[in-house]
Amino acid sequence: MSGSRVLGTGSALPRRIVTNAELAEQVDTSDEWITARTGIRQRHIASDDETTATLATAAARAALEDAGIAADSIGLIVLATATPDNTFPATATKVQAALGCTGGIAFDVAAVCSGFLYALATADSLLRTGMAKRALVIGAETFSRILDWEDRTTCVLFGDGAGAVVLEAGTGDETQGILGTKLHADGNQHDLLYVDGGPSTTQTVGHVRMRGQEVFRHAVVNLSDVLKEVLEDTGTSADQLDWVVPHQANARILDATARKLGIAPEKVIVTVDRHANTSAASVPLALDVARKDGRIKPGDLVMLEAMGGGFTWGASLIRM
Ligand code: UT7
């Protein structure tokens, strides 16, 4: 079976925007520091009535509308999140109920910032085996709920949001849809980026902890390596790529990774300035932004890539 095809995309952001200047009133930071070190200018922060499930549902509805298909034709929902509404059941099942899809498969994937790449690969594999014909792949997060708002080294970096993609099983044409994917994990790096709580350890939700500089160094190496792997596996050269849609953690990581591979900066989709790091939501959010503003067009060759806690990382090449 050939790779799954993207039928539509959608995204959703919380109503409330928080600028760097507003953050600087709460913690010892400045717009200058945040902009220069990360490229972030603002982030969306969920209000009490906005949760990972409500954002995911809104993004999924937008993706279904974009694809022009009804919710009941979806047989599989894979939702990537590190900030589920409840410890269980999976947030994907809440989304399934809200959309009114019945009878299909729905579950969450936990791979933090690379969660969407893991979810996409999982859904693509299940579609290839015939387990379902159409899937919703969602990345949705409310990281604001697990930030330590007194820790300036992390709280300025993240935002909330959701992005979704409708996938359909491939039709046999090997030149269309998802052409190649690589995923990796290295559990030895657990302590560089983690949450210091959880049901089985502290019985609390916990807060994000990160050794930023070390994560930065690993991110540039791992992302450029996995991009090269997917290019080699699919017999593609970097200059054939029309667009790269990276995980939006830091503008300097995007620049350094693109430079290492000789990819022109104008081919890299950047939303980190507006959304900050939305973890699993960042790649589908950026993909949706660039499709809706007309940059990414049908037939374009697009590389998605992400890296996050675990460490986990991956990349996927798609002919749109
Ligand atoms: O999504 C998963 C992947 N995550 C990432 O990829 C994040 C990777 N890491 C990064 O993006 C960067 O390492 C950060 C943005 C987190 C930090 O940037 P940096 O250039 O590595 O800064 P640093 O950690 O070396 O800190 C430099 C200085 C320190 O002060 P001293 O020790 O030089 O006096 C920090 O205390 O900046 C200080 N600092 C801040 N100052 C103002 C740290 N956070 C802030 C802040 N405002 N918010």
Describe it.
It is a single chain. The mean pLDDT is 97. A 5-stranded mixed beta sheet has the order 1-7-6-4-5, with helices on both faces. The chain has a 4-stranded mixed beta sheet with strand order 8-13-12-11, sandwiched between helices. Strands 2-3 form a two-stranded antiparallel ribbon. It is built from 10 helices and 13 strands. The protein is α/β, with parallel strands linked by helices. A hairpin with a 3-residue loop joins strand 12 (301-308) and strand 13. It folds into 2 domains: 5-168, Peroxisomal Thiolase, Chain A, domain 1; 177-319, Peroxisomal Thiolase, Chain A, domain 1 (3-Layer(aba) Sandwich). 32% of the residues lie in helices and 25% in strands. The longest helix is centred in the C-terminal third of the chain and has 22 residues, at 212-233. Oxa(dethia)-CoA binds at residues 29, 33, 37-38, 113, 152-153, 156-157, 212-213, 215-216, 219, 249-250, 253, 277, 307-308. Oxa(dethia)-CoA (UT7) is lined by residues 29, 33, 37-38, 113, 152-153, 156-157, 212-213, 215-216, 219, 249-250, 253, 277, 307-308.
Helix/strand layout:
Elements: E1 5-12, E2 16-19, H1 20-24, H2 31-38, E3 42-45, H3 52-67, E4 76-80, H4 91-99, E5 105-109, H5 115-128, E6 134-142, H6 152-155, E7 160-168, E8 177-185, E9 193-195, E10 208-210, H7 212-233, E11 243-246, H8 251-261, H9 272-275, H10 282-292, E12 301-308, E13 312-319
The chain binds oxa(dethia)-CoA.
Overview in brief:
With 320 residues, the protein is an alpha/beta fold.
